[in-house]
Design a protein that fits this description.
This protein has 272 residues and is of the alpha+beta class. The chain has five helices and twelve strands.
Amino acid sequence: MPHTARERYSELVDAKLRATIVKRVGVICNNRYEGSPKAGSVKVPVRDTEVAVADYNKKTGSTMTHGDTSYLTVTIDKDKAVNELIDGFDAESVPGNLVADRLDSAGYSLALQMEKDASEELTTGGTALDDTAALTKATVYEKIVDARTQLSNAYVPTNDRWLLVSPDTYALLLKSPEFIKASDLGDAVVQTGAVGRVAGFNVFEDTTLGDKVDFVAGHPNWFTRVEEWTEPVAVNDLKGSGTYIGACAVQGRKVYAHKVTKAAAILVKKHV
């Protein structure tokens, strides 16, 4: 299979992944890191302090300050493969529409797995809120405002804040007068996949948060995704396999990891 086809197939899978996944790069997470995921680990910059601003004196100048950006080593802990048999065709004769369908399915399945893995990192790496009472129509907005206040006290920027909500929490928000539906917002918000906005958060429904998780509130600056195809997606002949005759397979392999880099910037609301 020519190298250009392998790249094209990988791009098609990634396109489906981006269209399917809720936790998109630039919206829910960032992809700022140094190094190659293939090597097994990367360095992620963590902005520990902000640049200090001081008065300037024309005679003596300004006091020199020293900023602090540390680097966190993130181990690439997920190694996932696409390896699906297509019987009855060799790689050169398999119909294009069949390849397209299986690539689309591969993108969807990979997106769902990455969603689950990202949710696990968010809910274990973030800060659990003290209140574990079940949300109700009367309390859902109040609890989200409390999370907003806690993020502000942790100096998390107000722009680009997001709120991942379970289907049950989303149902409560739909009954809340404070919730602004996506249809009433501009295209820029809708294109991120948000279903609405409340208390300064762009809201996203997420079915993978896990049992008893009501919502996760955060900011993309402090949640990182690292990913790379170690084996680009290709349709490979299975001649010589010793098992399959007149068959081929859609095959590819991707490594990735997710990391919460500042626990105070990711808040998790659970109920008991």
